[in-house]
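Worked example 3 (structure in, sequence out).
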């Protein structure tokens, strides 16, 4: 926790106008949530004593069992990160040709396809939820479409049933990028068991982390078996390779970070939810600023504090971000400018934006603010006051 160095009442109090910055140290989006150090250190000793550091060790096996139980799925295959997990899932499902994805996501969703010679086809989003729009998906289906990747953006479930109906109708495969959605629910059911499989990220910046890490979770026995083989070069026992594969293994140190953090994840979520409510209160009434909310029906980790700067706001989004950075508040513009506008996709599809009006609009409006267990109420108040002073 950093103590704000000043009160912000008007524009004159802002660092962009010559005042001292509100914080002497940077306030980051994506500060890792770290569980009980004592428990972690004890496990470190256990791993070192065991002399088993990687290659499907006992900690990874225990971690996989805990995650599968937690999410109520049959299989969890832990990986070194979420991107490799996506790549392996995509390959195990034999996707090819074209796969429909939202552009409004972290670039890894599209890269995991492109890296394997598959063309990501970008579908537009619903501007209120920021999730892929099923009608837009329908428009992008061609004879070359082999799959759809729904992304549960900001931890809110993608329109699962609608996407499943499209996939069934066209005989294409559906999987989910659930990188943001660890612990989220849909229809009261934990994210993890939808589509043919779901892919999690346990990166340091996620609400639940294993330093780096990821997993494919699925109820499909055969798919899980194939993914397990692919994660470890295709080995089925000593000297016996029965499948093409790569190295996607999670190491024991990452697994123990996960086991430790799982013990406090509920506390992290509760803290994030309190922070979200504090932001809602502090930002209320600032003209042209709206905070995305996740409702109370489904579970959400409340990890992402997403603010939209409306078109009629007196200042634009970029000016607010510049002002926040000047105060040492390192807010982000996730996922500006949209994957379709990044290389190589902007060269591949120079006119993609014409099919992505909502993505283009949202990309101009979004600011993601700091959250996590180390953030205090007074920091939230100051961050909101900076935004208020910019706008008023
Ligand atoms: N699909 C989706 C929808 C995703 O969002 C992601 C990852 C993936 C797939 C792929 O999963 P992984 O392969 O990553 O497991 C960050 C994360 O690196 C990335 O995992 C995440 N999404 C994405 C949304 O955010 P960057 O390039 O913005 O990271 P960076 O280094 O700028 O860090 C973000 C902030 O967090 C900074 O302000 C600093 C702070 N930070 C970061 C780290 C690593 C810390 O305070 N401590 C740390 O240890 O991508």
């Amino acid at each position: 926790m950093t103590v704000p160095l000043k009160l912000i009442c008007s524009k004159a109090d802002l660092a962009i106008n010559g005042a001292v910055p509100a914080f002497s140290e940077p306030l980051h989006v994506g500060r890792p949530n770290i569980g009980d150090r004592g428990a972690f250190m004890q496990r470190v000793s256990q791993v070192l004593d065991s002399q088993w550091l990687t290659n499907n060790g006992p900690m990874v096996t225990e971690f996989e069992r805990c995650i599968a139980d937690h999410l109520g799925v049959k299989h969890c295959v832990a990986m070194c990160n979420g991107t490799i997990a996506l790549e392996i899932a995509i390959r195990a499902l034999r996707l090819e040709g074209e796969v429909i994805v939202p552009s409004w996501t972290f670039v890894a969703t599209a890269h995991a396809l492109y890296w394997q010679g598959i063309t990501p086809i970008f579908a537009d989003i619903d501007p209120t939820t920021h999730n892929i729009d099923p009608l837009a998906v329908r428009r992008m289906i061609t004879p070359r479409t082999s799959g759809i990747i729904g992304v549960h953006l900001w931890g809110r479930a993608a329109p699962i049933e609608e996407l499943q109906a499209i996939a069934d109708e066209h005989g294409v495969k559906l999987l989910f990028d659930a990188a943001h959605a660890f612990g989220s629910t849909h229809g009261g059911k934990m994210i993890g068991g939808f589509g043919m499989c779901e892919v999690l990220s346990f990166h340091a910046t996620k609400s639940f982390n294993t330093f780096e890490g990821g997993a494919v979770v699925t109820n499909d026995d055969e798919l899980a078996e194939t993914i397990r083989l692919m994660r470890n070069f295709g080995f089925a026992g000593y000297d016996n390779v029965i499948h093409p594969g790569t190295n996607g293994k999670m190491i024991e140190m990452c697994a123990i970070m996960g086991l430790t953090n799982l013990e406090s994840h509920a506390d992290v979520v509760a803290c994030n939810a309190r922070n979200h409510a504090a932001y809602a209160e502090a930002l209320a009434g600032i003209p042209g600023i709206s905070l995305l909310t996740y409702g109370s029906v489904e579970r959400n980790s409340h990890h992402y504090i997403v603010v939209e700067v409306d078109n009629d706001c007196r200042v634009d989004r970029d000016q607010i971000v510049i002002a926040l950075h000047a105060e040492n508040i390192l807010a982000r513009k996730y996922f500006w400018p949209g994957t379709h506008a990044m290389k190589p996709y902007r060269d591949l599809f120079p006119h993609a934006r014409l099919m992505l009006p909502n993505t283009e609009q949202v990309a101009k409006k979004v600011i993601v603010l700091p959250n996590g267990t180390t953030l205090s109420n007074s920091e939230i108040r100051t961050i909101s006051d900076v935004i208020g002073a910019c706008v008023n």
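Notes: Residues 187 and 298 are 7 Å apart (CA to CA). The mean pLDDT is 97.
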